[in-house]
């Protein structure tokens, strides 16, 4: 090829440094090595967070001579910033002409000022990021308010915001599921930081969601959540029952009902608010009555949940549903687990007497959905799972845009969540062992192994066929069956979406924790590097929805929005929340004290419960323990480090409970 020049990004490990020649060699995950040249225009720096602070504290080597301003001394910059075995990200220009090839670096980003360390593994990194994200969302929506009421959400909340956080045109739609996702984010920010602003905003958002979008059944046993609310041009407002999302228009899709619970479940973990729990219970009753494929509901009983029901008949089998009739998909099966099941099962253990049946139902849903993912989703003829099905579990490869295509992030999401479920079954096995129930213990252990093995298989496969092994990050949608000898074929562009990076980071971090294998930590670190360099919108303290293969923001159309049907303060907050606790729990720190982390709770004064389950996530037995507890600012002198069910006195309800955790460290393999 002649005269080729193009911007490029390379992520990899430095294998050699030649300061005299102002060059270094970078080895990417693909195994390819690139000789990279530095000149007077090359800029070096250290990873920066949303706060915009310059964290470059790389010490100057002996006799360092930076050279005159505007000209510099490239060889000295190489000597200062580059060391073998360092993970770095290079942005530069690739040039090719006949037999000559060359990469000139323009930006070189280090992960830390100290060799072998990573900014995103520092104690403050994700706390800082989630705080900046939460503050900006609240500032964009509500201005300088620091306390919030339901009426603030009624007047000012909008789903659609432009990249600067301002309203978009004249569409002031308020979507229920997107609001719930923001409540999840605000609740997560409170759990990590204890900042009252986040709790008060989440509380007001919860009240508004329940008062505005909830519709109860005649007997009060079930509820549905309306799609949204829109102001009329003349006066008043209109409640929109059926979805307006193009994939689901004029139906009630299950995933929107599921995500209407995401904020409620995370808020319930903090507060134990009994009214919130009642609405969660009613929603789950609706899932079991209207979406579940069971003989009791008049269907074939082949298991799982139908993805859509008709708003007029509340049935999944009417012709009006079109190609969403009698369908099942990843969202209707798998999204139960991260959206509400993990948090709800933890929060309900031990259950109040009147909620024992709800806990049994949640455990059954977890078991059923995880088993279905294990048995129905893998495809021996593809690197990727099947994502859409007919009622009889025949794969549906003809549905609209999906056809026979894979969403890389869904495969990573399965890897992440099946590892969580494996941890849960390890706990059940340990409890069965303690009770002397050997058969149950063996069954639970076998299930845990099965879930973990599929999680590992998908994570390992995505590392080859879903991740960008040269530039970093993971791709979006690819063909499940390639028509060429190439390892992957793209459906549209080779772009990368923010939410799929989250799934990958969390999958590889938790797999490192579950297996102790260092290769998963390396994958997580590379994806964290790509996220923190390319997805953080420093100008607007937000997250870019989509970037190009080399990491440039793809700001056009729907992908230029900070808030939309697909973006609502959920995935980025979820990443911050779980990456923080996973890193503190699973990654060996510089000192033992830096491994500890805190979570903040605020049980409602009227909740009626005096037992608070504070386990942060589905952890395998012997992973973490409690280091300290304080209630209303008063430290507790006596507690069991292995008992995550904290007893509270009635007069301690309505106060802040702070729990500090520490990992029980295992050596990496």
Explain what you see.
The protein is α+β, with helices and mostly antiparallel strands. Helix content is 37%, strand content 19%. α12 packs parallel to α14 and α13 packs across α14 (498-515). The chain is globular and about 80 Å long. It starts with a strand and ends in a 6-residue tail after the last strand.
Summarize the structure.
It is built from 16 helices and 29 strands. It has 669 residues and is an alpha+beta fold.
**Helix fraction bin:** 25-40%
Shape: globular
Question: Could you list the spans in which at least 5 consecutive residues all have pLDDT below 50?
Answer: none
Mean pLDDT: 96
Number of helical stretches of at least 4 residues: 16
What's the gyration radius in Å? 25 Å
Instruction: Record the strand order, biggest sheet.
Output: 1-2-3-6-5
List keywords for this structure.
single chain, 669 residues, 5-stranded mixed barrel, 4-stranded antiparallel sheet, 29 strands
Describe the SSE topology.
Elements (H helix, E strand, L loop, with lengths): L3 E15 L4 E6 L4 E5 L5 E4 L27 H8 L5 E11 L2 E11 L14 H18 L7 H7 L4 E2 L11 E2 H18 L2 H18 E3 L6 E3 L2 E4 L5 E4 L11 E2 H6 L2 H10 L2 H18 L16 E2 L17 E3 H5 L1 H12 L8 H21 L11 E3 L14 E3 H27 L3 H28 L11 E3 L16 E2 H18 L2 H17 L1 E2 L4 E2 L2 E2 L13 E3 L7 H16 L10 E5 L9 E3 L10 E8 L2 E2 L9 E3 L9 E7 L6
Parallel strand pairs: 3-6, 4-6
Antiparallel strand pairs: 1-2, 1-5, 2-3, 5-6, 7-23, 8-11, 9-10, 11-12, 13-14, 15-16, 17-18, 19-22, 20-21, 24-29, 25-28, 26-27, 26-29
Helix pairs in contact: 2-4, 2-16, 3-5, 4-5, 4-7, 4-16, 7-8, 7-10, 10-11, 12-13, 12-14, 13-14, 14-15, 14-16
